[in-house]
Structures are given as C-alpha cells and as structure tokens.
Please model this.
Amino acid sequence: EAPITAQGKGFSASFDSSTGSIQSVSLSNGKVVKLRQKYQWYAGFDSPGTPPSGAYLFRPKGPASGFPGQPTYQIFNSPDCFEVHQNVSEYVSQTMRIYPDDPFIEFDFKIGPIPVGDKVGKEIISLFQTDLKTNKVFYTDSNGRQMMKRVKDFRPTWKYQVIEPIAGNYYPINSRISLQDKDEDIQLVVMTDRSQGGTSLNDGELEIMLHRRLLHDDNLGVDEALNEPGVDGRGLIIRGKHYVLISDIKSSNILHREKGIQLYMAPVLAFAPINSFDEYR
Amino acid sequence: FETVHNFHRAMGILQHHDAVTGTEKQLVAFDYAYILNDAISKSMDLMNRALQYISSNDKSSKSNNEPYYTLCLGLNISQCEIVESNDKVLITLYNPYAHEYDFKVRLPWQQSNYKVTGPDGQSVNASIIPIPSFMQDFPGRNSSATHELLFKVRLPGLGIASYFVEKLSANKPAPRLETIMPLPTL
Model:
C-alpha cells in the first residue's frame, strides 16, 4: 500500500497502487503536477441519412466513454528501467516506462482488435488529464516544425460556429501536442510516433485518437467502411508509443525538440554472429 | 548505385500522403511494407561493405572473416532471429544523429545469463525485463522470447559503435529486477 514511485531524469512519478495508473509527477524544482492517463472510446455516428463517422469523417455520437472495471497491472523495477504492464480491457493494454536518465515517460500501447459485435463503431483515444490552467489553449505541431496555437471553439480567420463540439476541435498532430500553464511555468508535451489527431476539450486535458473501427461508408470516396479485417479476420491491432514530458516551459521546448529529432533519427542496429569479439576489436 | 536506386524507387512510392500518414487501406500498407522491405534486403551487401570499410582500419586488406550483418526488422515486437539463435552476437549501431546519442537497446531474450561488452572492451550493465504477455502474442510475431535484455549504448555523433552480447550458460543472472504486484482487490 506504499505509494509506488519511479525516478526519471528531473522528475519522479507516482502511481496508483490499485490500478497501476499514473497519478502525479513531481519536478526537481519542487512543483507537483497531477497527471492522470486513461483510455476512452467514442461511438461513431451512425443514424441513416446523416453523414456517419467513417474513413474521412470523424463524427462521434456523443462524449467519450470509459472502459468498465479497473485495470490490472504488474510493475517491474530494475536499476535500468521502471515498467508498469497494465491491462485496461481485453483489447486495450499498455506499458508505461521510465528510464532513470530520460526526462520522458513512455506509453507503449497496444489497441485492438476493436470489437464491433454490438454494431457500434468505436474510436479509441488516450486521455491525459492534469491540473494545469490552460484557458482553452493548446498547441499542435505543423510538420514537426512550428507549434500552432489552437483555441477551443475558435478559429482565428473566421467567426466559428460550434456544430461538432468534439470533432470541430480536433487538429492534426504530426509529432507532438502540448499544453502550457504560463502562471505555473509548466508545460505538458505528448510526442507521438506517427501522425495522429488530437485536441484539448477541457482545461488541462489532452486527448489523442489512437485507433478507429467504423461500420459505415462516409460516402467521401473510399466506398467502404473503415472496418479492415486484419490478418486473422478479427480486425486490426495497432501498437505505438507516446512520449510524455512535464517540465518548465523553457527546458521543455529544448527537450521535446531534441527528442523529436532523436526519435526521427533513431540508430540503425545491424547484427552478426561472431566468435571472438577481441579479434574483431 | 543500383542498390541505392532500389531505395530511391521505394521512397519515391512512399512519398504518397497515405504512406506518410498511415491512412492507406491495410492491403496497401502491406504493399508499402513489402516494397520497402524488398529494397532493404537488396541493400544488405552494400551495407555490409560500408560497415566493413568503416570498421576495418586496414582499408586494403580483404580479410575473409569479416562479420556479415543483417537487420532485425521485427525488433519493435521483440523478435530477432539472429539474437535468438546465436550465443555470441556482434551488434554494430550506426547513429545518423549529429550528436552523441544515449540509446536503449532491447533484445529478445530468454532468462539465460548474459555478458555485454562495449567498444572499449569493458562490460556493460544490463537488465532482463519480462515482455508483457499482451505483447508476446502479437499477430505475426514468431519469437519464443519472453524477456528483453536491456542495456544502454552511447553512440558518437554520425558514427558507429559495436557491442558484443553473449549468452552465458552459467547460473542465472543475479536478480536485478524487483516485481511489484497489486494488492488483491476485495
């Protein structure tokens, strides 16, 4: 029942001992940021006659739902790495990873196959919740270069009318999305390993769309539903990573740019059987 | 140039916005992977010549016991046939990043003992960490590894470094792993 904590570079994270989920991040400058992360899902819009959710169209029927029950977990702690292996549902699981010399927390997720036996298309998101005061503002990158300022329910170039309260606030994420609390001088950055979409619907929150399986053609060109059978006919399974950084704004901007380049330029590993390393050396 | 041309062709095709964003149909995704994999497999001779040229200090000699490298393209799902079927493996890493890079290497591993040796001949600390059960049965993964050997390498900017990983049959590694289980929930 003791709080479970892990030490990263410049921060320590604490985990909820009943679910294994992250609870807060304590920075080396003494600040403590509440950080929760969970998976949720949107039901795709499907009433006949109106544009449904589909390959080109993101149109959730309503707010996101959670997964029933409580995640189960196991933690493996070694001097080189702290890992939480967490099962959220029969098709959502993740490993949270903290290295002692790395300022980022790695979320290594596996989603799918998404069950659609209930005839409901589903879109799975990862939701990060903090106590940061962000005043409806968040940032997404443009091609991994400049960070674009986004404001909820707002467009800088025209008078925006809220028709799709959720989809209308989704923006493309090429490599990262972030929130800033200027008063507290704290920034949350979530880096992705591929292009995804995301938003901040509530203050201090970020959500990123991870996987979708929909049952209707949105009549925008693909001529079929986003319902791939996958290798074994049960649907697609995806695996990916998010790298999460909570830090003061200035150092965060340095760290996430460096990480972005490092992720993009990961080393190439080549393997060869060999008898004597000394001879090779 | 013929080999590099394969890459040019593959990357030319993968300029399509679907390939860049992953929005292609699954069968197209398989085709993209096939095209790229084909280019990679045809480039192995070129890559080996380059690595041998860089790593041998006598450019003119053609010693015939140069290691012949392959890639493990399934490393992201903890699958690497060479590591799993050989007791002594040389790993040479190329760092395309222009700065020194501390990189975490994870290799599919059983629970056998290990010895990792760095480029300077010193042994390198490592940990053996279980692969989560939900990652072991990933579709398409054909590996019996249940753990990963994790160690950190330090790579020079725009450079290469070689590490040597050896399975030791001697007794089990000293446990460097603490396992925390949740309290049984009522």
The first strand of chain A starts at residue 4 and ends at 8. Residues 191 and 274 of chain A are 38 Å apart (CA to CA). Helices of chain A lie at 249-264, 277-280. Chain A touches chain B through 54 residues (CB under 8 Å).
